[in-house]
Specification:
Low-confidence stretches: 88-101, 121-125
Shape: globular
Radius of gyration: 22 Å
CATH class of the largest domain: Alpha Beta
Oligomer: single chain
Number of helices: 14
CATH architecture of the largest domain: 3-Layer(aba) Sandwich
Distance between the termini: 37 Å
Strand content: 5-15%
CATH topology of the largest domain: Rossmann fold
Strand order of the largest sheet: 3-2-4-1-5-6-7
Structural class: alpha/beta
CATH superfamily of the largest domain: P-loop containing nucleotide triphosphate hydrolases
Order of helices and strands: HHHEHEHEHEHEHHEHEHHHH
Mean pLDDT: 82
Length: 318
């Protein structure tokens, strides 16, 4: 047994949900067995929530933006979970917890659950167990799950593979940031939101919009891909909420929501298989010794990387 009161979890008991998330975040082998059993049980009953990712460079105002968005969402009597992935502390390896402090108004609402979790250095700006945490939140009856990532760049692709709508939050004159991530993130972005526009002119706003339109001209679900807002005074937040709502209705009615979920399952199945193959390979006897021999041969120029690695893979993974 996993020691989690599953009935209470289904009824939305927040202390039980928090306990369940702590369990799946544990790295202890005994806890991982319990966590796997719990997730297996959850997948039989989880509801179809709307999963939203909010990404962007540090300083873009992601937490404040989400707080403004929550104030719109709670008007609709929705249950919302926010998974704020904090950069892990280098010393304690724990969560910095800054996001929860910046969401102090909305997080006190009975229909809102905010869970800061350490990224533990995981690629993609998300914790390795973020997907399982989403499943727990859906089992607990949450209608919307918002994932706030650390904004680490190209590796945000993994966050896209666990959500239904990807928001890239930027600020004026952030072209250098996009250059740094090679603009590839625009290809997976459903909505670009230029935040902190309260102190720039209309001409400057239009210049910012034109920059993004030139780099990514496509539209999805018939809405403008580039929007502006000011999380400081709330301007533009209602329009973004309406875009999210209309997109959810469209995706739900045309079957894209279910299709997207199936594509995500396919991605995570392949990812899990890849991890297990790698683990099985490195757990083979003498692999470590043979790798050392390969390195020596490459150093002595008696073989190439491709040739020698192919031999060892073919030998152990027939």
């Amino acid at each position: 047994m996993n020691n989690i009161n599953f009935k209470k979890l289904q009824n939305g008991d927040i202390p039980i949900l928090a306990q369940a998330i702590t369990l799946i975040e544990s790295t202890l082998y005994s806890d991982r067995i319990k966590a796997n059993d719990l997730i297996k049980e959850c997948t039989k009953f989880e509801k179809l929530s709307y999963r939203i990712c909010v990404s962007g460079a540090p300083g873009a105002g992601k937490s404040t933006f989400i707080n403004c968005l929550l104030n719109e969402l709670i008007k609709e009597d929705l249950k919302i979970a926010v998974l704020a992935i904090d950069p892990s502390s280098n010393e304690s390896k724990g969560s910095i917890l800054g996001d929860k402090a910046r969401m102090n108004i909305s997080s006190s609402h009975e229909n809102i659950f905010v869970r800061p979790s350490p990224s533990k250095g995981e690629l993609g700006g998300v914790s390795k167990r973020t997907r399982e945490t989403i499943i727990l939140c859906e089992t607990a009856g949450f209608d919307i799950v918002i994932v706030e990532t650390t904004g680490v760049g190209q590796t945000e692709y993994i966050a896209k593979e666990m959500t239904d709508f990807f928001i890239l939050l930027t600020i004026p004159n952030s072209g250098d940031y996009l250059q740094a991530i090679k603009k590839g993130i625009l290809e997976i972005t459903d909505l670009i939101v230029i935040n902190k526009t309260e102190n720039i002119t209309e001409n400057e706003i239009q210049k910012e919009k034109n920059y993004y339109h030139q780099n990514q001209k496509s539209k999805k679900y018939n809405f403008e891909k580039v929007q502006t807002c000011s999380s400081k005074n709330g301007l533009g937040i209602n329009k973004i909420y309406n875009i999210l709502y209309q997109n959810f209705i469209t995706q739900k009615n045309n079957g894209d929501l279910i299709k997207n979920r199936l594509n995500q399952i396919k991605y995570w199945v392949k990812k899990s298989i890849n991890e297990k193959i790698i683990d099985k390979f490195y757990n083979q006897k003498k692999v470590s010794t043979e790798i050392d021999e390969i390195i020596k041969k490459i150093k002595n120029k008696t073989g190439s990387v491709e040739e020698l690695t192919k031999k060892i893979v073919d030998k152990y993974l027939k």
